[in-house]
């Protein structure tokens, strides 16, 4: 381990990017390497293997591609859904709108079930829709980062398997991988897509997607050509297989340094303490602490009930009479960076705190204490200012 320490900085507690460890940042500063060198090949290969471990899957196929989380939607739309085929989007916020938009861009016929604000789509509504029409894919947002709403991934997958077993279950887990429990094989998921900068604790720049063998087969047997060049699994599947088997292949240059950083983070997540399961528990505990503190400060949460509230972030309404301008800059002055609202209809009414990765699992850093203390002070100052 190096003695590298990152510069003092404001605490970043937005729902991604998140705080990253010194080890991960140092790995990003690796000397330049050839992407086909013998030294780099196992670094990439281990990322693929550790991803399987993290998602509890034996044989699903990871894709690690330069891009952001958004590229995962493009991969699904371009490789799995053929133009004119039906897709059902379970929409629990901003990111559901975007996934629909992406699917339509590639020619899918999209139906949406839109959840009430602050809630997840009811499984009974999903089952009813599946009985009406045959869908190639059902997509849902595991944690909708715009609302902090957690969807029941296991229940959704079970409902699809029961009513429409051929339909692929696609989970946008950009804001849930490594902070929420995900059991890929056991739950019967077909796609988990995410990005490097949220729970995975790496700088932004990687699209990370894991596809079931069933999904890979659906891709391989499609009737029409893939509708993307850069995002085509025809191009990327041989590359992923090559790196995993210990040889290199080239389609487009991988972000070599970022792969070193990703490897360092996956190593911390899957090979070091806490274990992956402990990590989930620590995220639940940190989340409960922040949510309780928010409640004590009189802040109402967006999710309508605890069972649909994410464990890696918290979304709260501003108290009556206060706005983003009263609170967010004041928190920044205390070196705490939170996020404003994002949902199109309500974005001025609430704010969001991210508590993923080291901020959630390493209490010795004191990140959670700092957030709660700053929130308390800023709220008191803002209220005093209004009363003056
Ligand atoms: C952040 C996020 C995305 C988009 O990821 P980018 O890396 O910004 O492209 C998609 N879905 C969810 C749920 C997210 O939280």
TrEMBL record:
Its EC number is 2.6.1.44. It is an enzyme of class 2 (transferase). The keyword Transferase applies. It comes from the Eukaryota. The modification N6-(pyridoxal phosphate)lysine is found at residue 198. One of its GO terms (molecular function) is L-serine-pyruvate transaminase activity. Pfam families: Aminotran_5. InterPro entries: Aminotrans_V_dom, Aminotrans_V_PyrdxlP_BS, PyrdxlP-dep_Trfase, PyrdxlP-dep_Trfase_major, PyrdxlP-dep_Trfase_small, SP_NH2Trfase/AEP_transaminase. Keywords: Aminotransferase, Pyridoxal phosphate, Transferase. Its cofactor is pyridoxal 5'-phosphate. Residues 25-343 form the Aminotransferase class V domain. Substrate binds at residue 352. GO terms for cellular component: peroxisome. GO terms for biological process: glycine biosynthetic process, by transamination of glyoxylate. SUPFAM superfamilies: PLP-dependent transferases. Belongs to the class-V pyridoxal-phosphate-dependent aminotransferase family. This is alanine--glyoxylate transaminase. It comes from Lentinus tigrinus ALCF2SS1-6.
């Amino acid at each position: 381990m190096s003695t590298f320490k990152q510069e003092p900085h404001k605490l970043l507690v937005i729902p991604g990017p998140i705080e990253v460890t010194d080890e991960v940042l140092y790995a990003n500063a690796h000397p330049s390497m050839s992407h086909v060198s013998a030294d780099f090949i196992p670094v990439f290969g281990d990322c693929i293997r550790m991803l399987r471990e993290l998602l509890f899957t034996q044989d699903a196929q990871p894709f690690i591609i330069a891009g952001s989380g958004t590229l995962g939607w493009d991969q699904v739309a371009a490789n799995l859904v053929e133009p004119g085929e039906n897709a059902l989007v379970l929409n629990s916020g901003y990111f559901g709108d975007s996934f629909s938009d992406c699917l339509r861009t590639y020619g899918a016929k999209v139906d949406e079930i839109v959840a009430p604000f602050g809630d997840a789509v009811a499984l009974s509504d999903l089952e009813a829709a599946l009985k009406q029409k045959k869908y190639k894919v059902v997509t849902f947002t595991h944690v909708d980062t715009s609302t902090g709403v957690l969807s029941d991934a296991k229940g959704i997958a079970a409902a699809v398997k029961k009513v429409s077993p051929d339909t692929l279950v696609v989970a946008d887990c950009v804001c849930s991988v490594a902070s929420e429990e995900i059991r890929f094989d056991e739950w019967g998921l077909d796609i988990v897509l995410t990005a490097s900068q949220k729970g995975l604790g790496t700088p932004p720049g990687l699209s990370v997607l894991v596809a079931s063998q069933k999904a890979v087969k659906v891709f391989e047997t499609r009737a029409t050509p893939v509708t993307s060049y850069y995002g085509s699994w025809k191009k990327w599947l041989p590359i992923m297989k090559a790196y995993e088997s210990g040889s290199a292949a080239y389609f487009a240059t991988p972000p070599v340094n970022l792969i070193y950083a990703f490897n360092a983070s996956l190593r911390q997540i899957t090979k070091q303490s806490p274990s992956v399961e402990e990590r989930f528990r620590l995220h639940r505990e940190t989340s409960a602490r922040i949510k309780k503190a928010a409640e004590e400060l009189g802040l109402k949460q967006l999710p309508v009930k605890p069972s649909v509230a994410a464990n890696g972030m918290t979304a709260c309404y501003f108290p009556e009479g206060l706005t983003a301008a009263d609170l967010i800059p004041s928190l920044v002055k205390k070196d705490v960076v939170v996020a404003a609202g994002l949902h199109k209809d309500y974005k001025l009414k609430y704010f969001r705190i991210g508590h993923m990765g080291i901020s959630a699992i390493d209490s010795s850093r004191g990140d959670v204490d700092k957030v709660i203390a700053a929130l308390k002070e800023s709220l008191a100052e803002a209220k005093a200012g209004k009363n003056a």
